[in-house]
Amino acid sequence: MSETLPPCPHCSSEYTYEMGALLVCPECAHEWNPEEDEAIDSSIIKDSVGNILADGDTVTVVKGLKVKGFPQDIKVGTKVRNIRLVPGASDGHDIDCKVDGFGQMQLKSSVVKKVL
Hints:
The chain has 2 domains: 1-42, Single Sheet (N-terminal domain of TfIIb); 58-114, SH3 type barrels (Roll), CATH 2.30.30. It contains 1 helix and 9 strands. The chain has one helix at 34-43, and strands spanning 17-19, 22-24, 31-32, 59-61, 79-80, 84-85, 95-99, 103-107, 112-114. The strands form 3 sheets. It has a 3-stranded antiparallel β-sheet with strand order 1-2-3. A 3-stranded antiparallel β-sheet has the order 5-4-9, with no helix packed on it. It starts with 16 loop residues before the first strand and ends with a strand.
């Protein structure tokens, strides 16, 4: 039964078990509610390589993007400063930003990489 349960978020042990509504790790004694973890994880927005994004970050575009109404594309490596996150966007465009030469637009987090 442990093969369907997630590993412990603290020690990555695969031997977690259920105790009522909680999951328990027998190796480090950590207890957590998996439903709360899912709610927290759904509000976190990550870039194309897994870095967590925050409002005000600077990102670079990692994939050439065609823009309707513009003769040129947004090129790979284009820097976008001061992004604003829009969690829960139904169309997948979860970043609101201003791209130099293109103006205000929305991007998907899967096509950008955070500048560290």
